[in-house]
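Hey, can you fold this?
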Amino acid sequence: MWPVTTRLPASPRATREATTGSGPLPHLRAGAVLAGGILCWSLAQNALWGVSGRIGLTQAGLSEVTVGAVFAAALGAGLAGVTAAGALGSRLGRAVPIGVGTAAIAGCVLLSSTARDLAGFATGEILWNAFYPVVLSYLLGLAASLDPRGRWAVTVGSASSLGVACGPVTGSVLSDHAGYPGMGLVLCALLLLVAAPMTAVARHASGRPLVPGSIRRRGGAPAAILAGRGSGTSLVPQMGAPEQEVTPIPVTAPRRRAARSAFGLARPSDRG
């Protein structure tokens, strides 16, 4: 597509944003912690995935057909997990799905790596593949919320891809030196370690709007969207919604006295 897209005219709005929107990365510390955390997080996931077939064949004693059926069910559970993440949305915020989901994945990794029969292997693989896309979607959403221009989303996505690439090699080396249960224990500990800083970043960024001008309640639910077009500070969301104008109504003393008499609230001095 590159030869075709080079002939397309540049959008004036895109050119203006490219020239005026330069600047350092916002939330540098939180973004760096998230990028490092998701690199280790993705590495642990794919370290198990790279040797899951060998675990099922050699340690659990399953046939290739049975292992293939377990993987098919696990991938179907991943599709169900994505659907569940979309339905859940921002009801629980980002910190709870990331922290609790990563802890659940760590338990599934340990269960799969120590499985010695069909029940343990299938349970670990299916639950793990169900939780994995849920947490990943929230991590990518968290990265997007750190920078309206999407630079942290690209950085975190690249770190995740690097972890995916290094995962199978890490899983093979760990399983060769420590065995499958030892590998699972190391990966479980790694996931629990990275869960804490990533959850802290999610709590720090809780309520930060994904786009300029959107205000979100605690947990990430949209509260109000204000139109800030044409203003020079469009990247800074305006807090609150515009209030209705209050018109003062002058009330004279005789009217107040008559109103008090009508409701039986007049003082004795007023009645006299």
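Oh, and this one too while you're at it.
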Amino acid sequence: MTADHTAATAVTAVPAAPQATTAPRPAPPPPRRRNPAPLLFLLPFFVPFVLFTLVPVGYAFYQSLLRTERTGGTFGRKTTVFAGFGQYAEVLGDPEFLGSAGRVLLFGLVQIPVMLLLALVLALLLDSTVACLKRFFRIAYFVPYGIPGVIAALMWAFLYDPRLSPIVELLDRAGAQPDFLGSSMILWSIGNIVTWTYTGYNMLIIYAALQAVPADIYEAARMDGASEAKIAWRIKVPILRPALILTGVFSIIGTLQLFTEPQVLRSISTSVTSTYTPNLAAYSLASSNNYHEAAAMSVTLALATFVLSFGFLKLTGRKAES
């Protein structure tokens, strides 16, 4: 057998490489059907939110773009015309509205930290191991919030009135002679009413956040020799950050809506004018049938509330990340 014949036989004996075949593509999964149950559960919130929040705000914005004009002199016919953003220019250029806004901002800068600090201290005291009668004090701290705002303001108005108040009489005998209804103290008298009313409400939110913390964390800290004061400052307060942010947002919204307390005190004090707060100024405009400017003022106040609340959330969120 020759060498060429041997090489040819070896070549023919090598099996041919199998041809590459493409695998069939898997069939696409069937489209997932969305479960409508979550939407149904959200309807009890969204329906009232749309009907009683979004629709009124939208209608107020529409009214703020209009203006009522009188044609033919003083006794002419009233007509409603489109004014664009002219009402907003008048509101932002009104010195009384700007003064009321500055007054409310000053009020919030002082009253909100004081109220939240008191709420935090009360919640920490209730959560301490040495606290007694916790259920009684929880109810006692929360009772002022359960009293209607008008009733609470009337009660404090009685205590502020120098002709009726036993507290003012006792202070006068001691030589203090405070004027709670005077122009220099009326804003802080209102702040006292708001603090008395809402401290217990905020305390309950903070206290509920404390109850969600496992007790093992506190036990481990005590075994390491930490005192109750250190546990409160080093462990409880950082854990309460979300609750404090939530109560802070609620307090900012409530401060910008300040209305009931100055409206009640206005009947016994000349220091409270019809434009003492932005909400009271909008109410006074609407009472005098100036609905369009009142709507513009209300929308401006709503935007300011959104900006301040959102800004507070962003600021606290950045501090938490840093």
